[in-house]
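Supplementary Note 3. Input sequence used for the single-chain structure prediction.
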Amino acid sequence: MTPPLDRRDLLLSAGTGFALAGTSFARPRGAKLRYAAIGCGGMGRSDLSQIASHPDVEVVALCDVDSGMFAKALEIAPGAKTYADYRVMLKELAGEIDAVSVSTPDHMHAAISMAAMAAGLHVYCQKPLTRTVAEARAMTKRAKESGVVTQMGIQNHSRLQLRTAKELFDRDLIGEIHTVHVWSDRPAGWWAQGVERAGGEDAVPANLDWDLWLGVAPERPYLNGAYHPFQWRGREDFGTGAQGDMACHLMDPAVWFLELGLPRRIRSEGPTPNGETYPLWSQVRYEFDANERTTRGPLVLTWHDGKRKPPVDALEELGTSREEMPANACLFIGTEGALVANPYGAQKLYPADRYADVEIPGLSHVNHWHQWVDACLGKGECSASFDYSARLTEIALLGNVALRFPHETLEYDAEAMRFPARPAADPHLSPEIRDGWSIDGI
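The predicted structure, written as discrete structure tokens, is reproduced below.
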């Protein structure tokens, strides 16, 4: 097992102790942003490509536990140094990098991001921000203490589709909101869910450091095609399933447009995870306090996945049908009408004849990655910094906690981060961390 680096090693740069609160090793405004990519396959390569395309970025290093991911990444960033262990990279390049992207399986987001922020580095972290609620809370706290620039990888937040939906919503066309439905077709064959853990063990490929891939997660044998690459997402030890994956995109309009806080109550209609993977479908009801954008409340938001969509009767009242609804979207139902916020297509108002003459705004994309780079260089702000995206992530992850207690209404004390009447749910808010590993600050 690769020994963890001493925390002091990560907090020292150029012989000077790092004082966490309010301190950053960021370079002066106007200089090139020296950047390292942690996770170079899949979304990691996409993140690297987008960030590297900014004219004021210098790609210094690439880090991945699978050396097979470097070939294509080096085509984007020729000459970059390569590392398998992010801890080694952070130690060796202390003072030589300013920012990192974290595009690994969910279970390693917090460990890597917390170490990077402790070293004064700006962080772009893929969604969901973390695998557990406690990690999301810790990430927010560390970001504020360190003063670094942060962004979660919900690029749809900056694209024209949701920006268009936001402008339509802000025109107050549909009245006060009382109900929201959010749905996804995932997992839809993208990754395995509803399956038990398979037995056996395969030889670990020479290009993969399996111990580093496991990281903070419980130890288990390697199996070809079961976990790496990408099949980890539906596994409880490594991923967050359909809701953790897609709610950060699809619940984003609800949390953003309605300025939602954390829910008071959560209820899952099942089925339950099997101890290895999340179920093939789920339905989770959230209740939020009313605010100036809603009716007197509570505001009810229902999450559906596994190709499930809003109830037929609700859609019929709006003059539409399930067949007309996209595969992934967010539906706001108000006192005057409804809006479908679709990250991947056209925005629609219902009943359609009532809004036939509404002019759709002509907006353009904002590059979500470049927005982060610019903010790191002191130009502008991020739209999905950790103070916002951690709350969005927490809401999504609370749904996964509710899955374990089907047909029960769980009262959530957000301030205390616990379920007072159902203490058996509390352990699901925090990570189990493998011996020999740790997440500083958790």
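Residues 1-26 have pLDDT under 50 and may be disordered. Residues 49 and 76 are 6 Å apart (CA to CA).
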